# Entry
Amino acid sequence: MLPLFAAVVAASTAVLIFAGGMVTSTGSGLSVPDWPNTYGWFMFSFPLDKWVGGIFYEHTHRLIASTVGFLILVLAFWLWRAEPRRWVRRLGFLALAAVTITLATFIVTTLIHEPASMVTLVAILVLSIVLDVAWSRRRDRPAGEDDNHPATDVPRPVEGGPA
# Structure
């Protein structure tokens, strides 16, 4: 069931990317000036008759993004609880971190009305620093410790102790 759910999350992410492309290609970015509301309405109860022009694309993208974000949260939790391979669990949490950074970028862009390119640049710099620290720690590990091997979650015998 977990692989099927992961496939649904991947497909919904593709739909989100398509919707984001529609927002960009129609010039509808920031058509909805407030967040988390939509023109003062709760995002999920915004009346359909007000979905006109760029608001249609921007609001649809927000709704899809909210759904995908929730699905990724569920997937990361599910992987943490049920997946035996550490690298797969970490991949789920990396996806969750990416969603969190994207959400933070979106919130800042919406609230301060700055160009998304500047906010995205800051997010990329922060992510680069975090990944650099993580990769540095991995590089400095003693030889033989490999997180990509499924057996790394299995306790190893202590040197000189009983096998």
Notes: The two ends are 37 Å apart (CA to CA).
